[in-house]
Amino acid sequence: MSNSGDSEDIPRQVSYWQAVCSGCTISDSLPQGTSAKWAAIDLPPSTLQDLRTRMDTDGYFHLATADLPESFRTIYTDIVAALAGAVSALVALGWPASFVTIFDQAWQLAHLLSSIMRDTTGGNELMMDFVAWHVDPALAQAGFTPHRDRHMGPEEVRSERVSASFRQHDGKAPRYTTCWIALSDANCDNGCLYVIPKQA
After folding, report:
1. What is the pLDDT of residues 167-189, one digit of tens each?
2. CA distances for 122 relative to 56, 61, 62, 118, 169, angstroms
3. Would you say 52 and 120 are in contact if contact means Cβ atoms under 8 Å apart?
4. CA distance 97 to 95
5. Which is it for the CA torsion 134, 137, 139, 140, positive or negative?
6. How many CB atoms are located within 10 Å of the residue 143 CB?
7. Of 5-14, 27-36, 87-96, 110-119, where does mean pLDDT reach its minimum?
8. Where are the alpha helices (DSSP H) in 59-97?
């Protein structure tokens, strides 16, 4: 079955989606009182302060898997691998890559990174605005063109909404922050991220 664009054609049976990717799970609710798999990654205060400074200065920071606490690296890499497999399976069947949010692992990953995002941005919380992207250079596919997330049009740029998109106490911390996660090795041919530093 493939995606025809009609919501009535989307299977509603959990068993269908579970069969699409046996390496992922689908639950009715967040597991209660369970393991570190559902714990948020806790970075040392000094590391968080460094990332916060880089966010304020450059408008972004890069955090590699090797920078994560050792106790979380296996959990993180296992989740990323499962989601990469799920995206490939979905796209092969004609479904949008963003359907990966059907699976627990997408939300598990968001939860793992939630405290890092909150502590490096001045308090931003998850707003569940997920997008997954599958880029196949063999098919001459490409990712997004240059853009600014939460982009404002010309009229809005001239309004107070620009300053309102930052916290007023310091004018640095954005109210909206994007967390970009590469589910596969990203390079110049398949969709790595380019960023213009804030001070450029």
Report:
1. 665 556 677 888 999 998 887 76
2. 10, 14, 17, 6, 10
3. yes
4. 6
5. positive
6. 13
7. 27-36
8. 70-92
